[in-house]
Design goal:
6-stranded mixed β-sheet, single chain, 15 helices, about 525 residues, about 25% strand, alpha/beta
Length: about 525
Amino acid sequence: MQKENTLRIGIDVGGTNTDAVVIDSTDSVVAKTKTPTTSDIQGGISNALESVLSGVTESIDKITHVMLGTTHATNAILERQDLNRIVSIRVAGPASHAIPPLFDWPGELRREVLVGEVIVDGGSELNGQEIAEFDREHLSQFLSQIDDKIDAVAITGVFSPVVPDHELAARDVAKEVLGDLPISMSHGIGALGLLERENACALNAALLNVAKRIVDGLTEALNSKGLSSHAYIAQNDGTLMGLDYALRYPVLTIGSGPSNSMRGAAFLTGASDALVVDVGGTSTDIGVMNHGYPRESSSPVDIGGVRTNFRMPDLVSIALGGGTIVRDNGQNIRIGPDSVGFRLTDEALIFGGSTSTLTDCAVATGRANMGDPSLLKNASENLEGALVESDRRLADAIDTVKVSRSEVPLVAVGGGSILVPNDLPGVSQVQRPEHYEVANAIGAAIASVSGQVDRVYKLSESSREEALREASMAARDEAILAGADPDSTEVVELEEIPMAYLTEPVVRIRAKCAGALTADQAQ
């Protein structure tokens, strides 16, 4: 019996454009579109849906899934807007008083987000031994004295990824005193480092209302188009999570756009290991695919001036895009960092505008063919020189991402990838696959669902094999919680790091499981 054809929609909201694609059950692209990004979540998604659905001849009842990648969480942090007012609770006393919570945040962001912070006794050692008894009374007294409006709570305990008991106890106290406020706990978000994990947890708490707006906007957009499809949100490791999971961990959407592009590049080319350059209207992101997934950063990542240690793709971003403004004062040329963004088709020279952009440079040198090249006849003769400088910056960024001197293949995607030359130092081949301009939306549409854990195990209490098995099962449970089909979920990454500097045998294990969409939703 022939399997019924079903359709999936992938949407990726970028700073300039919102891309959408429709893919059928054979993974063929049925329709694609680019629409300008809007500040209104529901409106922007609705516009993209309306545009891409106009290219679909089958009934919308065939659309079983809609996957969304969005920059709203990232933009909220960068722009210091729409963030929750939070209380940060650190369970770490009597140690760690020298550095207060969120001390290294940019001043304007700290003032925007933080209502109050407290350090109470408690937490555990790396070996799981309790540092001090959890001071329930201190925390309760502190919370009861806060007068300002609080939107959410962030709780971080010393080595809570090993033993989360005191974070859970602090959660119970917060609920008793503050009522039914959303609470983020660090043991489900970041790795071991206390300050970076605390920062990641606080950002997550600050983004909880943003997550609700994203989920509500997506749900309303689907309803407005009469779609009853199952919805997922893309996360920053190139996989998906269910809406409930996204409401709990919105910080995991940060970096999802470039990750979607890398997954889309792998899908379109069949390459599993390559460099990926994603060029948009404003910026260029360069990353590495390992086994078809984005390489994860091994060091703390800075997000809007905040140093964090939760999982993020290893990226280098530069201010080069199709809309990047080129200025010539007669003596030298300056490229960016500002961009005309989604106004490219109105402001670029080749479209009758008055602003020189890198897209104009690409057309002037024959690298691209669009707009009206005759409009460039009175433009600066140095447009070619600007593109040479752009190529140099791109080559330097690629060299930063590479981990070896050998030449590697490169996949160029994104609407602005016309800027990528065919020859680059250290690159064996530049590939521009079909549908390259909407690779990010394709990456969202074809993504699987995953779960990941990063925990420490005492080998004095369990064997190495038991620890690996427990970590794998915990990652599998996280994947299923995020929306993966239990029957298809499998371990895709398993890393163990012996911690030899301790007096007893301890190992840190990172496990990741991925699976297809749940069976009852795959239809």
